[in-house]
Write a structure and sequence with these properties.
Helices cover about 85% and strands about 0% of the residues. It has one domain: Nucleotidyltransferases  domain 2 (Four Helix Bundle (Hemerythrin (Met), subunit A)), CATH 1.20.120.330. It is mainly α. The chain contains five helices and no strands.
Length: about 130
């Protein structure tokens, strides 16, 4: 394995670990009724999953807008509109909730389940990309 490939693989794994850790933290925060913080952790978890996939393609996403465009294109490429819907309607709402606190704990918990499913789906794409 070349040094560049090894570095890229480590970056992918780092993003995936961070995604999983943020998801775990979100659950802990929800149990402590820290809904706004949990919301941001969930958004971060989804973002890190996407960044892992982008890294498999040699891409570094450096802005919110670039992230959204990447996810939109990923949905088109895979033919899976649910990828875009989850990112746009679920993850973005969670991100906004961190600042505006408009979601109830039960709603954030339901959105957490959607983020978990989104992350699994992106994780499968990462695994496929790594297998080449």
């Amino acid at each position: 394995m070349s040094s560049g490939r090894s570095l890229s693989l480590e970056r992918v794994r780092s993003y995936l670990r961070r995604s999983e850790e943020l998801l775990r933290q979100a659950g802990d925060l929800l149990r402590s009724n820290e809904v706004a913080k949990a919301s941001e952790m969930l958004w971060g978890s989804a973002v890190n999953a996407v960044m892992a996939y982008a890294a498999t393609k040699g891409r570094a996403l450096t802005s919110h807008g670039e992230m959204k465009e990447f996810v939109k294109q990923l949905a088109v490429e895979t033919g899976d509109e649910e990828i875009w819907r989850t990112f746009e309607d679920v993850a973005e709402a969670l991100h906004a909730n961190f600042y505006h606190e408009f979601l109830e704990p039960a709603t954030v918990l339901a959105k957490m389940r959607e983020v978990e499913a989104f992350n699994r789906k992106i994780g499968e794409l990462v695994e496929r990309a790594l297998r080449g």
